[in-house]
Amino acid sequence: MCTAIVSVDPASPVPVLLVGVRDEFVVRSWTPPGHHWPDRPALVAGRDLRAGGTWFAVDPGAPRAATVLNGRGPLVPEAHRLSRGELPLLMAAEGKLGDLDLPRFDPFHLLCAEPDRVRLWGWNGADLTERTLGAGLHVIVNSGLEGEDHREGGTEDAFMLARLAHFRPRLAAARRPEPLPGRGGAEAWGEWLPLLHGDGLPRTDPRALLPLLDIGDGRVWGTSSVSLAALTPGAVRYDFSAAPGDPDAWTAVL
């Protein structure tokens, strides 16, 4: 149940903000953001050690940031499947999908953020959509932009709708951050930061932005990291936490 939060304000000194909350099985191995791809030396991203891709990638020189969430639709047989973790790398590096073999990817939502535009692609296994996100606040979950692909009756859908209902109005009501260079994390991200730390909700709460859930058979699912990108015409600020909810765990990557 990953979440992406986008704020677009063309009049701001920081016109685009992008938040990526990654939810995964907690035993899945990964490494923190770095230059992990010799064929793409400009990119900075965390690396998933199972599939080799990433969930959130930044090209500081572009400047550009990209993140991917699982989508809704039929899964590709494992023998033919390509990793969705390749998509943020491709998008951050090139700013376009290019000639992808889409039927080999499981459904996804893919965001590409640049200082003057933010685009969102959706793939459900049959159809690809593309849209540009205009000025304002946008929240994307696994059921799509503002949960538009919601399905009645599912526990996961209920959790996503509860998350949207709790956090979206709070984010909208909070003063929009201006994370300019040189500002510390608390000063930079301002009134958003307590919300991004979970807003005081237990991590088992159905509304939780940073869930941590025992789903049985020794499997624990939850938020493994939070990524924050602030895009200006000349740069990207990138803050990262590998300990969601801990105010002292932020690292200034860029």
Write down the CATH class: Alpha Beta
Broad shape: globular
Approximate strand percentage: 35-45%
What is the CATH architecture descriptor? 4-Layer Sandwich
In the predicted model, the low-confidence regions spanning at least 5 consecutive residues are none
Q: Tell me the major beta sheet.
A: 8 strands, antiparallel
**What order do the SSEs take from the amino end to the carboxyl end, as H and E?**
EEEEEEHEEEEEHHHEEEE
Number of domains: 1
Q: Determine the N-to-C terminus distance.
A: 27 Å
Rg, rounded, reads 17 Å
Number of strands: 15
Mean pLDDT: 95
Class per helix and strand makeup = alpha+beta
Share of residues in helices: 10-25%
Total helix count? 4
CATH topology descriptor: Penicillin V Acylase, Chain A
CATH-level-4 superfamily name: Penicillin V Acylase, Chain A
Description:
The chain is an alpha+beta fold. The chain has a single domain, classed as 4-Layer Sandwich (Penicillin V Acylase, Chain A). Helices cover 15% and strands 37% of the residues. The chain has 4 helices and 15 strands. It has helices at 86-94, 155-173, 185-189, 192-196; strands spanning 3-8, 16-25, 30-34, 44-48, 56-59, 64-70, 108-114, 117-123, 128-132, 136-141, 144-145, 212-216, 219-232, 235-241, 250-252. Strands 1, 2, 10, 11, 12, 13, 14 and 15 form an 8-stranded antiparallel beta sheet that branches. The mean pLDDT is 95.
SSE order and pairing:
Elements: E1 3-8, E2 16-25, E3 30-34, E4 44-48, E5 56-59, E6 64-70, H1 86-94, E7 108-114, E8 117-123, E9 128-132, E10 136-141, E11 144-145, H2 155-173, H3 185-189, H4 192-196, E12 212-216, E13 219-232, E14 235-241, E15 250-252
Antiparallel strand pairs: 1-2, 1-10, 2-13, 3-4, 4-5, 5-6, 6-7, 7-8, 8-9, 10-11, 12-13, 13-14, 14-15
